[in-house]
Amino acid sequence: MSASRTTRGIGRLRFWTWLHRATAVGFFALLCLASQPWFPWFRGSPTATRLMAVVPFMDPLAALEVFLAARTLTWSMVLGVLPPLLIAALCGRVFCGWLCPLGLVLELGDGLRVALQRVAWKFGWRFPRLAIPRSTKYFLLALALAMSAVASVPVFTALSPINLTVLAFWGVPMLAVAVIGGIWVLEWFAPRAFCRSLCPLGALYALVGRVAPLRVRVREEGQQLMCGQCTVRCPMGIQVMEQYVLAGESAIDDPECTRCGSC
Question: How much is the pTM?
């Protein structure tokens, strides 16, 4: 493996990392501006917005919960969930990899978490690793929908850390800091536990995009690089090198893949 080839590979990783961070920052900014009366182009809340006050967009899980809680379905809800569901059906969990505000916060906090862990290791402190099954989020998805139907309240939407990340800039910082801080502490014991194993919205997008045609393709020279960075850098814990590159697969078909480009 040549040094120049390895350098090119790392350069690609950095390019895709900063690109998906830029799109997430832009989406985060739009959601924050949506609450401002002087910003007419994008209005609404983290779960339901309108482009130019006309085109509706709605979180599909929020729409499901509202439908089950209120037993009411409107054309605005139907039209609002079509774009994100269609994108998920074609591209998989791209919301998680390219737009999710909480995912952005957790990714930006990775460097600080790793640095603090290295300091802790110097003092002989070791944090136990928790193994939370990825299937847990599907159970939580079913539970959230069932509770919404029984309690007549959109349960996950009301407590969603994704929404709280945005609402922290809308005047409820203490609740958001408490919830997001708790998730960040969990990261010490189970990296990306919320994204991998606990997020009902991620579970819904994974189900919708299970056979999405747009996938991360395996480059032909991947077997020659053998640097393993694709596996190390995958935020979803997918064994990219072992299960796909070395296995001779043409693309990554794991439904948990967020198409973030970090591999």
Answer: 0.89
